[in-house]
Amino acid sequence: MISFRNVTKVYPNGVVGLRHVTLDIQQGEFVAIIGLSGAGKSTLIRTINRMIEITEGELVVDDVDVSKLKGKALRLFRRRIGMIFQSFNLITRSTAIKNVLTSLVPDMPWYKTLFGIYSKAQKIASLEALDKVGILEKAYTRCDQLSGGQQQRVALARTLNQKPTIILADEPVAALDPITAKMVMGDFAKINEETNITILINIHHVDLALDYAKRLIGIRDGEIVYDGPVKNVTQEILDEIYKGKDIPKSEQADVQG
User: Fold this and answer.
1) CA distances from 119 to 76, 107, 165, 214 (A)
2) Are 99 and 127 in contact (CB under 8 A)?
3) What's the distance, CA 133 to chain centroid?
4) Cα angle at 124 between 171 and 96, to 5 degrees?
5) Would you say residue 215 lies in a domain?
6) Mean pLDDT of 116-130
7) What is the DSSP string of 122-143?
8) Is the entire prediction scored with pTM above 0.85?
9) Domain assignment present for 257
10) What confidence tier does 243 reach under pLDDT thresholds 50, 70, 90?
């Protein structure tokens, strides 16, 4: 379980990223986080693996006080949490399977890492991860020859290969066209359903959040203004989250395929 208790984040420049956030996220939930740019969506998910330090309050993940972790304990904790970014963060001149195999590097002896020595079992597991996201046939294709959607699926397979209990996704479909974005969101939903991995997605497009997630968190100015099932979301709730601003839809995206 992920537990926020009165969590506040104030950046050095005085900007408040989170204001007194209190919420619980249970194992196996699929949660979408929406709100205007700068509302605190990225701050919220990045505090969970301590990419961002909280200023006040308490953040506990699986009975571990995250703020007290140091050194090796922090590194081992982060291994249980997968992170997916908008920019894919792949080695584009390497093949899909080699990118997936890099998820194993932190647990390998240095000499195997240096020479890229992987066991047969590790290679099979990496192929299985690619199969789970539907691009097994691209295993030996260089990533710079893949579409944006295929590259994001490689990133998702790489994350799955580290066997996380939690996946944090920071705008994972923002750089994709609407059709491909739906396919990738479908992958997240399938993985959540089949593996019981907790998934938190910071997402710009409200329609995708409502179509694929099970729970919605709406943030405005660092505060939680809605937290509940997607089926209970009304236009009035969305208006409260966005405060009269246009509600972003995936069909409006001007992005790559």
Assistant:
1) 22, 13, 24, 38
2) no
3) 15
4) 40
5) yes
6) 91
7) HHHHHHHHHHHTT-GGGTTSBG
8) yes
9) no
10) confident
